[in-house]
Structures are given as C-alpha cells and as structure tokens.
Amino acid sequence: MSRSWWRLAVLVLVAAFLVPGPPAAAGALSGAGFFGRWSAGGWTVGPRLDYAREGLKPVESAVKAGDYALAEQRLLDHYRARPAIEAGAFSQTTWPGAVELTPSHIWTLGSGEAYITTLTFGPGEKTVTADVTSSITSGKAGFFLMSRYKDAVIALVNSRSKGSGKPTLRLTLADGSVRTLIPTHDTYIWAAHPDNVYGTKYFMQVSDQGAGPFTGETRKAYLRFDLGGVTDVKKAELTLTGQADTAKDIMLYGNAETFDEATRTWSTTVQNTFSWEGDPGGFDWKLPAGADKEYLYQLPRFSFAGPLALEYQKTGDERHARTLIDLMTDFIEDADTYDDDQGAGSYPGNLHAARRLQNWIAAYEILRRSPSLTPEANTAILKTMNRAGLYLQVNVNGTPNKMQSQKIMLLHAAVYFPEFRAAPAWRADAAGFLSAQLDDSTYADGGYRESTDAYLRGYLRQYVDAVAFMRRNGIPFTATAKLRQLGRFLMDQSYPSGYGPAYGDSDSLDLRSTLRELGELLDDPELVHVGTSGRSGEKPAHTSVLYPDTRVAISRSGWTADDSHLRLNADRGNHSHPDELAITAYAYGRPLLPDMGTFTYSEDPRAEWLRRTTEAHNTIEIDDRPQTSTADGGISHLIANPVFDLIGANTASSAGAVHERSVLSLHSGLWVVSDRLKPVDAATHRYEQNWHFAADADPSMRSGTEATATAFATGANLTIVPADPAQVSSHLLDGYHAPRFYSVENAKYASYVKRAAGRTTFDTLLVPSRGAADTSVTVERLPVGATPSHKATALSLNGGAGVYYKSWTTKASRTFGPYTFDGKLLYADAGSIVMVDGSSIERAGTTLVKAPAAVKELAVTFDGDGTVRIDGSGLTASTDPAEAIAIAAPEAAKVILNGVVVPFERAGTLIYAAA
C-alpha cells in the first residue's frame, strides 16, 4: 500500500471521531442530520456544523430550540455577513450560449458545437444572413440547426439540392477578395426515422417538441463547407433561405465535425446538444440516448455555473442568480437519491463530483448575498457540498488526475467552509495526499503514468494552482522536487512551438502558460524559458532526452520554434492508444507527422478508429489487428550527439511479430527510419507501415518511387521515400484527424503494405522542407554482400550524394556500394560523417575515418571555411597518431572538438585531433 493511501485511511478514521453523537440516517439528509438534534442536554444526532465557530451561536440556539426553519435563516444570515474567503476558480469562465440557453435547459457538451445566434424563419419564405466569422476563424467549417423552442412548427430550410436559394457562405479575405461557397454536404436527421438518409432532399427539416431531450419529432440539420485553400478570412456570412407556417426560431451552431450526407442518420450521429426547453422537470441530469457518453459526466459538473455567476456579478441581474440557484436545487432534488450516504454530493462519481464542488464553491461566494437565495435553498446547497466533501475524503480512484482533482477540491472546501466540523480532517487529508501523490502518479524517471500530454498538462496546471493556494493559506507542500521533475517531462514532450504533440487521448494544447507559471512557482528558469518562448529564463541545458521507465524518447535539435522535434514512444497507461513505436515529427514551425487525436469517447466509428486502432498512428500495424499493451517492449537506447540522435525501440505488442524501430535523426534536417519485423512463426504476415498527415496537408504519391509529399499552402512540408517501392503496396487512404476534442476532419494517410514470411524490413527516408516538399529525393537500396537487409541494411540517398548503413546484428566489416565500414551505424554525405560503435570507414579504398578502437559515437562536420567540427562522447584532444582518430580532411584549417578549438596534426589528407 502506498504512503498516500495509508495516510488517507488513517485520516478518515480520525475524522469519524470529530463529530459528536451518532451519524445521521441514510437517504436524503434531514435538517437534524445536518444541524444535529439536541435532546435532554446532549446531541442525540451530531451536527455537521462546528458551532464553536464565530457567528454560528444563533444557529446553534435555534437548533437546540428545535426550530430548524429559524436555524436555516440564521445560517443564511451568517453566510451573508461572513467576510470573503478565497473560493477558487470556476472550471469554465466562458461557454458559448450558457447565459442565453442554459436558463432554457439547453446544453452543449464540449467545443465541437458552439452556439452562434438564433435565426427566425416564417411566416412564409424568408432569407436570413448570420455573421459566422468567429466560427470559421476558430476552425469550424460546418454548422448545425436546431429548434430553439419546443413547438409543433417545422422549418424547411433550402438545401444545396434546391434549384434556387441554396445555402451560401460568403467569405471576405484579407486581400479584399470575396469567395462564395455552397455546402459540400448538407442533410438532416430525424429521431422517428433513425436510419433514414435525407442527404438529397430539397429541404432540411428542423423541429422539436414534447418533453425530455428529444422526441420522435425532433429533427436537426447539418451543413459543411470545404475551406481547402482558403486562408486569411476576415469576415464570413452564412445565408439561408427557409420557410415555416408561423415564426420559427432556429439556433445556429458552428460545427467542427466532418460528415457524409449520403450516410448521416440519427443513428450514426453522436450528438452533443440537447434541449429540455419547456420541460417542467428541466434537465434530468442523465445521458440522452445517442449522446456522447461524456454528456452524463460533463453536465453534472456545472461548467455553465461560471458564466452565469460571473454575469450576475457583473450585471446584478437577479435572473442569472435565480437561474443558477434553481439549477443547483433542481440537481439536488433529482440526484439526491443517487447514493445512500452522499446523495447529490457524489453523483455520478469521483471527478465529476469534484468538478461540481469546484464550481459550486466559486458560485456560492457570488450567490450568498443574492436576494434570490432562500434559507431553504441555501441549506440544501450547503448540505450537498458538505456531503460532497465527505465523499471526496473517502473515495479512492486509481487514475491520477481524478484523485488529484478530488483532493484539491476537498482542500478548497476545507478552507472555504471552516464552519463544517469535518474541515480540519479534510484539510489534513488533502494536503498530505497532494504532497504524496506525485510518487504514485509518476515513474522513477519522472514521466507521467497516464499516456497523454493533455491530461498531463491539466494535472500540472492543477498543481500550479493548488500549490499556490496552499502557500497562500499556510498549508505545507513537500513534493516540489518531484513536481519540478514532472514539469521537465512535459517540457520535453512539447513541440518547439510550445504546443503538445497530442499523444494518447489528447488534443494539441498550448503548454506554455502552464510551464511558465510552474517555472515561476518553483523558481525554475528552464521551465520559464520554454514557457515564454525564450523571452525569459534560461535555455534548457539539454535537447534530446530518454525516459526509459516511461518508455519515451525525444530527439530535439533545439528550443526555438524553428527547430525539429521527433517523439518515439512505447508508453502505456490510462488514456493510451495502441500506438507503440509511433512517431510524431515537427520541423520548421509545423507538425509534419502528427498524432491524429481522439475526437470523442463515444462509440463513433471515427473515434473508435482514432483511439482503438494501430492503423491510425505512425507505426506498423501487423496482421490488421491493433496492438495490445501487455507484452514486452521499450526504448532500448538513445544516443544523443550535438549533430544527431539515434533511437532504438522494440515492442512485442502485436501477436504476429516483434517490431523493432531505429530512428536516425540528423539535426541538419533529415530522419531515417529503419523497421525490422521478426515473426513468431513461419507464416506469411501482413505489415502496414502508415504515415499520417493533417487534414490540409494535401499529400500526393509518385508512381514508381511511391514517395509521398505533402503540399501545405504555406510553410513546411514533408517528403516520405520508401527504400523498396517495388516490394510494397502503396496507397493514399482516407482517414481522420481530430485536432481538438469533439472536432474531426477527413485526412489522408500514406500506407505501405508488405506481405512476407520470415524476417523483413522497411527503410524510410523522411525529409522536411521549409517550403515546398523536395520531390527530387531518391532512395536506392545498396546490397551488403550476401547479407540480407534484416541483418544489415544500406541505402544510397539522392543518387549517391549520401549513404546510410545500419547493422541489426553483431557488427562486422561490411561493404556496400563504395563504402566499407565495421560499426553499427553510418551516415555520410559531402558535409558530414556520422558513426556509431565503429572504428573504420573507407570509401573506394580511401580512409575517411580510422580509430585505434571502436568509438561509441562520432560526428564530423566539414564547414565551407575549412572548419572541422568533431562531436562525440568520451573524446579528448590528441594529435598522437597512435591514439588519435584519423579523419580525412584535406581542407582543414581549424578543428573544434565538442565546442572547443583544439590543435591538430596533418598526415597527407588525414588529420589527428581527437582520441
């Protein structure tokens, strides 16, 4: 048992003895259960309030007199008069439509659908135009329409199939030009006919009526536009023509989801927006049929509380206070029977109860003086928050971010509600847990146990806020060293742009503010440097890094936005994908091989493909089956050099074969990926090597070489060149890219399939370019005598301008093309030589490098001014031919060894400077 769980158990036992008298009865918490019951000079039911606290004596007097109505009034009086106590922040401060729509019990999950405005059609035919600039510029290329009110009126909105009055999107660009588009897809879905397709109809129908989130008469419409090649939009206007028998209000939402009008139906649509408008019961706080399953968890978190409470604070308009108070008490009434002990305080469990408590505490600080807050409502809300604290104190969850959130909110409750008798136990429990949990949530190397950078970023973000909160309130936090180590791990994962690579269940988030604030909190100048994009702090002393326990390696050329970054993983854990040995790559300001994201946690086929298949990642899928995460594997080595990195990794996560992957990363701008497959039997296996691109990459594949090149309209591009085009089946296939949660786009990926029995290989050259992709790149396999490629592989690059060699087996002197080499890896071109675990390189019988003994790693770079740069670990300056390395450098004028100018001796075309 870990120290944190032991401490938690002990504190829970201690807390049980802090409340005098027997506990309240199970079920809905009565007045006596909360205030206590006094009889015959003693507490027959212990109160949950600490009447020794200043200001609570009038409450205690009312309770002892048996007047619970008066006790409720006196308790409200106390909180209205109480000085402000730090209440923490809302989980959300803005939420599209929250102020306008939540009072009507209309709610949207996530940001994939964002409310824009309400349009009115009818009576008769009308054409309406809406400004949708913010939606288009935020990456939402689609829209959906939904009835604002529950009524029997049906709006008929012209579709793109209509002869006239089609939907149009008018775009005004930065150069003043105007483009007018019609939808590439539009349709509607109908609950009463869940499997019907309406993509070719002249009209899109919109309607909603009856109680509950929808009925058989609910119809929603969807439109999507193709914005390929469109940039710098300054204004966007959507024009729709529709009709209705009487005035019909229709909500317009921006939508970030791709769809096909030929297949979209009610049954195939994961819905994120539902309406209980006009339903006397309001939200039922449950999961509507067909909704994303996160709906059940997110709605009870009260994300809308922030916007409503802050609007009330800003305007003083009691409508907003009444709305939020009514929603809180409605939730209590609906959910109070969820759990016998904690009721609405725990619904529907762990993280969700914590998030709700976060939002309720922050809201209560604003609402406590509202005239709309009645004594009865106030008591009900306080009861629920008290029960939430008791639940969070004892509930245990193995997921780090959930437990962290629970204890942070427990700590906030302890500080904000000193009137609660359990507050001191909550404070001790939460503070001890938060200091100890970092040991449980991280590996020995400092990596995070959940395989996702978005969750890690959120985890660290919460620690930044929590530790600062603890310091302000005199609460000790003792795990700063471990927190710093975890912050460095996130820093290493980050792209040079400061965004996350979006591995696992994640989207690419800007990590910089979290890194900066963590650096300031811990006085860490390297975190500050990365968090401010180099404007402050100190540049990290390292670039590339290996996390052997977390099973991640990062090759990085530097810390500016223009540098390169390659991540290779064999990581596992909560929120991981079946993506072992997957690569994400970034260069010249752009992710060139991104992770394709998550989209949603629902069983949507696109989300299932993204999250559940190996095919959706930049690795090799074996026998059409996703990897498992129970077999052996890991990162075997990272050799880091100022000029290059060499990463080796392996995984047995596919039943058919062991996959080994080696990546040579040249910081000058080149990656070579060598894959070896070792099957477990003599059968023929199918190996599919995939390379994925962003939706706007516009990739193409050249026949013959089968090289794939991206064609982004601006900025960096990538060329992918396979070494054995004739041995693979090559295709550009249709996949998906989810750049953000609840957003998904069609995206192409390059697939190279090989069917083979016995050991086999893939060798692939990846060439990033600052501008247009270099389509002249060539790769040709060089025979290595009679040695097969699964033992030693050699490639001629760009017609002999460069050479690459890797030995998969015991090193030996081997010849390939004009070269002879005795080590494990070689790369050479006109300006550089890279060697790993070797001592001799010859080209056409002429010595290029000759060392008295094998060198672990060596890079030699020849500058045009005669400077020779030598980089390698364990090297020292020496000009003694008996000890030093001979290097062919006939034009050498100066030698720099590991950054320091050193003397050298010349012997013909060879120089001696390092040993």
TrEMBL record:
Intracellular or extracellular location(s): Periplasm; Secreted
Residues annotated as domain Heparinase II/III-like C-terminal: 572-725
Ranges where the Carbohydrate-binding module family domain occurs: 180-268
Coiled-coil intervals, chain numbering: none
Record's keyword terms, sorted: Lyase, Periplasm, Secreted, Signal
Domain Heparin-sulfate lyase N-terminal residues, every copy: 279-517
Superkingdom field: Bacteria
Keyword Cell division: no
Pfam families linked: CBM96 (PF24517), Hepar_II_III_C (PF07940), Hepar_II_III_N (PF16889)
UniProt key word rRNA processing: no
Gene Ontology CC terms, in alphabetical order: extracellular region; periplasmic space
Gene Ontology molecular function: lyase activity
Record-linked Gene3D superfamilies: 2.70.98.70, Chondroitin AC/alginate lyase
NCBIfam families: DNRLRE_dom
Designated name of the protein: DNRLRE domain-containing protein
UniProt organism field: Nonomuraea phyllanthi
Lineage of producing organism: Bacteria, Bacillati, Actinomycetota, Actinomycetes, Streptosporangiales
